[in-house]
């Protein structure tokens, strides 16, 4: 019973910390605020994490652990393309289109992990002590896979700087909907991107991405 209570407190601290750190940043959240948010004493944070910095790192790891299952179908979709030898635009363009559409839907609309995604994007835009965790465990692996895809389609070496630049440009076409979300929502007159609105984004962005890859010239 005691062990269960301790684990519950730890889990509550991590969930609460993700929301608070995402909203206010590392410097904007005090240990006292964190403890008060879950009705725990300050000593509980020291017991579970040792201090604020380690709590922040563990929160980042917690966010990654929660995001990986949601993004797993995206990685699997891309890996299936990369597992095939070479690239045939006639037979594989549809697979690439499906991958891009899936990535957009999973990333642009994520009600289950909004605070975690916001923390990731905060570190993405302004790297802090949690950036290396997000980069090593989430950002870099996907970036490398997309670089491989870009290089294969273009007939380039995946280690060529131009391949990395091209892949980063592709990512930017849908990351912008989160990194610059507020201006987009204001222009659309939305409070947030709802599930039913994702299709409209896909209809515009997917063809743009395909054209940038030279796979859709219509």
TrEMBL record:
Keyword RNA-binding: no
Name this polypeptide is given: TetR family transcriptional regulator
Residues in HTH tetR-type domain copies: 7-67
Domain of life: Bacteria
InterPro entries: Homeodomain-like_sf (IPR009057), HTH-type_TetR-like_transc_reg (IPR050109), HTH_TetR (IPR001647), Tet_transcr_reg_TetR-rel_C_sf (IPR036271), Tscrpt_reg_YbiH_C (IPR015292)
Matches recorded under Pfam families: CecR_C, TetR_N
GO molecular function: DNA-binding transcription factor activity; transcription cis-regulatory region binding
DNA-binding region: 30-49
PANTHER family: HTH-TYPE TRANSCRIPTIONAL REGULATOR RUTR, TRANSCRIPTIONAL REGULATORY PROTEIN
Keywords: DNA-binding
Source organism of the structure: Aestuariispira insulae
Organism classification: Bacteria, Pseudomonadati, Pseudomonadota, Alphaproteobacteria, Rhodospirillales
């Amino acid at each position: 019973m005691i062990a269960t209570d301790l684990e519950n407190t730890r889990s509550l601290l991590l969930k609460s910390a993700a929301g608070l750190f995402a909203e206010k940043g590392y410097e904007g959240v005090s240990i006292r605020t964190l403890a008060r948010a879950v009705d725990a004493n300050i000593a509980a944070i020291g017991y579970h994490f040792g201090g604020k910095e380690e709590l922040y790192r563990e929160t980042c790891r917690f966010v990654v652990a929660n995001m990986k299952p949601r993004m797993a179908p995206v990685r699997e979709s891309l890996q299936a393309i990369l597992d095939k030898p070479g690239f045939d635009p006639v037979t594989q363009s549809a697979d690439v289109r499906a991958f891009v559409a899936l990535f957009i839907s999973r990333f642009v609309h994520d009600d289950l992990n909004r605070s975690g995604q916001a923390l990731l994007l905060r570190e993405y835009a302004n790297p802090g002590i949690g950036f290396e965790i997000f980069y090593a465990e989430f950002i870099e692996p996907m970036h490398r896979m997309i670089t491989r895809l870009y290089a294969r389609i273009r007939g380039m070496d995946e280690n060529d700087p131009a391949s990395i630049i091209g892949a980063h440009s592709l990512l930017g076409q849908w990351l912008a909907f989160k990194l610059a979300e507020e201006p987009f929502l204001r222009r659309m007159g939305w409070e947030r991107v709802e599930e039913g609105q994702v299709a409209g984004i896909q209809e515009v962005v997917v063809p743009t991405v395909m054209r940038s890859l030279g796979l859709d010239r219509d």
